[in-house]
């Protein structure tokens, strides 16, 4: 059921059997007269008034932050394999922050526009503009978060969304309600060419392709853009794809499907969510997982790069405890810690 409280939507998840010790809200925020963006907001488990505000954006483009970020990565409620019921995520990021999940741009998840041309003309610049408008209007609904320490986070194609939204916020210097302190992006997509440079070597070094295919890829695809490869490169890429087989490209060392089971009905979800529808650098150091290396960190002036051992593309999905530890350090402005957990821990 959904109950309107002072313009906010509080959601009681009918299929969650358990106690919820934090407030959460959901609804639409108008960007303009035609566009509305959907959100799900979770206050921190303890002392929300003292915790920062953190916005999460998934990538794609086209991936819902509700379906991915909230439901299988960093949100409080995750979907069981039956596709019908929920359970609480013990490593939810609302343990350390007030978490805001946004379906963006319009056309993603439950976010919509009344003009079809808006869906055809979506781009990174308009996405940043709309997300900034969303934030400004959302803060009018939740004025207690105006001026609160604010962080942006996301993954994958949010390597575009997050820094461009950060730039838009910084350029809007007169608005003091958004107190941006920093951002973090996991496995960020920033530039196709540079992102793809190491893929050929990676596939070969991990045994996903044969020596012959490796040689042909280097011969025909090494300087190609993955967005517009030549016909010769495409042919070899098809061979490489067949050699890869039924492997999850987003996490090659895990089973090809995490099996969330039968998908939740879109209409069922709608009813549940909303009835009305020059740098200084330090030495590279290890983060220790008990007696094993859990990952590596490299710090620069204002920038830290972290790798997590054994994680796939969605780090919080595969290594939730480590991800929570890292974001906690990020939000506190402290150095990435040495991680010490039991071998069986996720």
TrEMBL record:
GO molecular function, one term: serine-type carboxypeptidase activity
Entries under PROSITE patterns matching the protein: CARBOXYPEPT_SER_HIS, CARBOXYPEPT_SER_SER
GO biological-process terms attached to the record: proteolysis
Organism per entry: Papaver atlanticum
Name of the protein in question: Carboxypeptidase
Top-rank taxon, per record: Eukaryota
Keywords: Carboxypeptidase, Disulfide bond, Glycoprotein, Hydrolase, Protease, Secreted, Signal
Family: Belongs to the peptidase S10 family.
This protein's GO CC annotations: extracellular region; vacuole
Localisation per UniProt entry: Secreted
EC number, UniProt record: 3.4.16.-
Keyword Signal attached: yes
InterPro entries membership: AB_hydrolase_fold (IPR029058), Peptidase_S10 (IPR001563), Ser_caboxypep_his_AS (IPR033124), Ser_caboxypep_ser_AS (IPR018202)
Coiled-coil residues: none
Gene3D superfamilies from the UniProt entry: alpha/beta hydrolase
Keyword Transferase: no
Signal peptide: none
